[in-house]
Structure formats: structure tokens, C-alpha cells
Amino acid sequence: MISPPGPGSVKGSSSGVAQISYACLGVALGQSGLFIALPSLPAMASDFQVSAGTAEESITAYALGYGFSQLVWGPLADRFGRRPIALCGVTLFMLASLGLALVPEFGTFLLLRLLQGVAGGCGTSVSRACLRDVFSQRSLAQAMSVAAISYALALGIAPFLGGWLASVSSWRADFVLLTLLGSLALAYLARELGETLPPVPSRASTVRRELAVVLGDYGRLLRDRRFLLPALIVMLATGVVAGYAAASPFDFEQSFGYSAAQFGNLSLSLSGAYLVGSLVVRRTVVRLGQQRLLWIGLAAITAGALVMLALGLAGRFDPLSLLGPMLVVVAGGGMIVPIGLALPMQAFPAKAGQASALTGFMQQEGTAALVALVVWLPDTSQVPLALSLLALALILATLLWAYSRVDISA
Fold first, then answer.
1. Could you tell me if 193 and 12 are in contact, meaning their C-beta atoms sit under 8 angstroms apart?
2. pTM of the complete model
């Protein structure tokens, strides 16, 4: 059970329900924008007459916009308030999704995917700042785990819906659905989401001065290990999940002969695995503590990668030998990510918007880089993927060890 928020006025929701709902909606829309079209990538490549690698650039474009935009949305929310920026972001997401449903050629499609990613970044970064406004310490980690459940659902349900739509209609229906979901989210937030940012004294300042302050704050965060280490941990833990998600459509649809709908159905299992990890955090974080759960999550990632490697070295390359170990890896990621997202904001409560924004930037841009690498791995064996996962697990272990030696009360 999540503890109630601390003292303070929260218009429209003293219990934080609207803020948790916004966090869930922001994550669900943002990640659905990334995942819903995965089953349709081969069909999209055929429709636009581009290669598979070129079609996958739409994932990278979205992730780039999603990450970089958070460097802007966070400070804007700190300066002008959470509510107006939140509504602006959802509106932009809805309009970009509509454009993607209608666009006739691939160059414009990529630009609109970038813009859609920019809009999706708002819901993620600003909603996390809203949670930090009304929750603190381990209650914040619990609230983050609830938002992580939305990520888990989007991870599986979005490709499932995308695969189903691809079996009965064009891939453009994916973006029609996102347009409808965006409009529903906008209507809900306009009615229910109150302002959570405490009033700050008004001050006269120029745009140049504001920019200098923001850049200075980002620089200080990046130099502080209380921020940098958990942000890097989140980046890698998210990357191990997203990298597989980006490469798997071609493995299953081209190497294993799955249809888009069958691949979408299979993606539901990823939701279940990530959900297990998130629920473990929600139920045990107060009793076990955040750092212990981070190590448990790393153990799951390592175990899954080792099993995948062993099966690959034994000559296995089939849906079960690939997906089964990956479910263990995803469960580990589901434990690490919500805690890692909460830690920077716990350390810097006065700069929650900027800490959330910079964490989101590193998370998404790191994910984009890992996706760009993973899609070039050979699709005739799971050994390269398993070795890549083990390398990431080793880096994660180093980061967790370093974080365990940080004085978080500094």
C-alpha cells in the first residue's frame, strides 16, 4: 500500500490519485507510441519500399525525440507548472499520431515519429515530477512501481493490439488508435489533473538567464554520483528490454515464420514478466530496501542471459530458447527500472523536474543507442544477444557496486 503524500496542497487530488493516474497514462502513451507498431515493421518496410533496417529507424527517431525532449519538458514544468505543460504534451502527441496515420512517404513519417517522441517525453518526465511533488522516499518508489505496471502493460498489450490491427487492417490503424487514446487522455487530464508544483516567488529573468540556470543545474546533476549512477542503471536496464523488443519482430516473423498477430500475442508474455518485477518492488521495497532489490533484479538479468547463452551454445535457436530466458531478463528489468527512476528525484527533491527530465533523456537515448546496436546482431543464433546481455549485466554490477558506496545523504 502506498503511503499518503506529505503535507501540501494538491488541487483536485489530495490523495495523489490523479498524479498516479497521469504517471500511468504518460508512461502508457509514451511506450505505446514506441511498441505498438513493432509487429507492423515488416509490412511498413514493404509499404514504404524501404529495407528492414531503414524501417527500424522509425524506432530510433521516436526514442531520440522521446529522450531529448525531456531536457526541455522538465524545466518548463518547473518554471510554468505541471498541469499546463502536461496538457500541451498530450495535445501534441494526439496531433502527431493523427499525422502518422495519414502521411504518404517515409521521410515525413520519420519526422512525425520524431515529433511524436517529443510529445511522448512530456508525459513521462512531467508525470514523474508530479509524483515527486506528492510522494517521498520509499513511497515514491512504490508510486513509481505502479507507473511501471503501465510500462509492463504497454510492453505487451501495445504490440498485441498492433498485431491484431495488422491482421485486419493497415499499419496506419495503429496510429489512429494512438490518436483516440491521446484524445481520451487529454479529456481526463483536463478534468482531473491539478497543479502540484508549490508556488515560487516571481522573479524577473531573461531567457538567456533561465537557460544558463537550467544548463548549470544539468551540469551539477551530471557531476553528482547520487544522480549519475542510478540514471545509468536505469538506462542499461531499460535498454536490455527495448533492444530485444526492437529486434524480435524480424526474428519471429522472418526466422520463425510467425505472423504479425502471432508475434503480438507473444508480446503479452513480456508484459507479464515485467509486471512480476514491478509488483515485487511494490510489495517488498519497504521491507527489503531499494538497494537489495536492485541486486536481486541484476541477478535475474544475469541468470536469464546465462540460460540463453547455454541453450545457444547447445545449438538451440527457436522461440522457446529465445523467449523463455528473455522473460527472466525482463522481470529483472522490471525490478530495477522503477527504483532507479525514483532514486535521482529522492536525492534532489527541489529539482525533481530536471532530475526526472535528465534521467529520462539518458534512459531513452541510451535505449536508442542499444537498439541501434542490437538490430545489427546476427539473426541466425541467440548467442550474440546472450553475450550482449551478459556484458550489460557486468556493467550494471559495476554501477550498483559504485552506488552502494555513495553517501546518499550528502
1. yes
2. 0.72
